[in-house]
Amino acid sequence: MTLLSVRDxxxxxxxxxxxxxxxxxxxxxxxxxxRVGVVGESGAGKSITGFALMNLLSRPGYIDSGEILFEGxxxxxxxxxxxxxxxxxxxxxxxxxxxxxxxxxxTIGQQMIETLRAHRRLSYDDAxxxxxxxxxxxxxxxxxxxxxxxxxxxxxxxxxxxxxxxxLLLDPQLIIADEPTTALDVxxxxxxxxxxxxxxxxxxxxxxLITHDLGVVSQVTERTLVMYAGRIIESGKTRAIINDPQHxxxxxxxxxxxxxxxxxxxxxxxxxxxxxxxxxxxxCPFNPRCELATDVCRARMPEITQFGEVQVACxxxxxxxxxxxxxxxxQ
Length: 331
Prior knowledge:
Strand 1 (2-13) and strand 2 form a beta hairpin. By secondary structure, the protein is an alpha/beta fold. It contains 13 helices and twelve strands. It has a domain at 2-90 and 172-238: P-loop containing nucleotide triphosphate hydrolases (Rossmann fold, 3-Layer(aba) Sandwich).
């Protein structure tokens, strides 16, 4: 059953001249309890997608067109009061840096209790008790003592666990996690991702994991969206994309993983860099960096096409599949 349905979502940023487009008509679905990864380099549009879903875009950014249907209701048409009821209650977001998420002048308990009482009619004692239960669920040691501490008194890993506990306070149906382990040590990262996965499975919560790390995506998510320059260029089951990437950009991301490079050799990387919003090339936005680019790629934007378990936007992939189908037909 579909929980979230995004259709032709376009996000723009106003400038002194012509507005620039950050998201170009993206469409995807998230089912109840499904774990979806959103991957790509910095500037691909991953975080903008998350902010747009929560209706957290601030000027000069704005949703220009499209629908964001959450449980059948269009988020883009909700009033401020309806949005406040939705955020934290039915949809929650985990941000990159817990020190930015948590208020440094309030204790952990104050922040959790205020969150609960803003959405539920609860007494102070009941809200505190629920907060203790959630801290225990994310394996916070001595939760009673932690409620009376300030964020700066806790380690980075513990702060991120508390942010996850706050996200789960009101039993949301969807969590959007924006690079939730970026500021943490590698060993702590693994613990946090395992915790998120466990929480989503046990509570049947949908998860959108925004990250640049395909290794994390392969371990946590069931389906993956690969983004480039504000577009979804490949999507499908995570295992299918990891094992047999179709788009040259996805292939480049996987080849750039350290484990893909033999010891003692230079790490492989995709040449060039992501285009800026104001200097988008004509045709396929990846064509200046693509070894397979042809004149068609430089002139015309590729359409999303279904190939087996994945959808891909690439002229060359479409041509290769057409040639393969021709050969199979001839035999």
